């Protein structure tokens, strides 16, 4: 059984009289522990797909089986649990809370999570043990993204979803962030999905 099995997935948006089809009958499988990069130009439907996989949006039709369960059949409560227990999310613009330190940002994220990891250990793993008490404004873009990755990993997610995680970073810093995500995938056996429009950064 695949970790993720997507079957005939469709997501359409109603725009007044017309219909925009963001995802048109997608079919693919992802194995547990895989590192997957989804590459495509702006408007291709990548963010829509990632939001569907993360239980943040609802499909128009089709199925997304995650460990055998179709999350497209989930009600809102089940989706909330799914997002909380299974999913880590990394965004292009980090989305850290500005008046909390690096450590506090990670601690806050795991407050309601049962099977969480030690925030200090996770920050150490992303190379930030010397930045625990710094605020986001005191960190470089690459460091802020490392905090965001630590925050996602502290939840011990089965699936790490990354939406243009290098999009706000220079080439070299972006490469290092991708390397960190790949190392994490290998070491923790976390399934990682990265979307990007930048083919130069595809590993
Ligand atoms: P990408 O992430 O690859 O840039 P998106 O998933 O953001 O692509 O968008 C795919 C298509 O769906 C685009 O044509 C976009 O305009 C449309 N779309 C995305 N979100 C919405 C929305 N909330 N309402 C209407 N159309 C949308
Ligand atoms: P894209 O480049 O994929 O078209 P954006 O760069 O606008 O989209 O945002 C990247 C992702 O981060 C999107 O999935 C969006 O939903 C999410 N995002 C952006 N800003 C916020 C925010 N303030 N809070 C939560 N999520 C956000």
Automatic annotation (TrEMBL):
It is an enzyme of class 3 (hydrolase). One of its GO terms (cellular component) is membrane protein complex. Keywords: ATP-binding, Hydrolase, Lipoprotein, Nucleotide-binding, Transport. GO terms for molecular function: ATP binding; ATP hydrolysis activity; transmembrane transporter activity. It holds the Pfam family ABC_tran. InterPro entries: AAA+_ATPase, ABC_transporter-like_ATP-bd, ABC_transporter-like_CS, MacB-like_ATP-bd, P-loop_NTPase. Its EC number is 3.6.3.-. SMART domains: AAA. Residues 4-202 form the ABC transporter domain. Belongs to the ABC transporter superfamily. This is Lipoprotein-releasing system ATP-binding protein LolD. It comes from Urinicoccus massiliensis. The lineage of its organism: Bacteria, Bacillati, Bacillota, Tissierellia, Tissierellales. The gene is lolD_7.
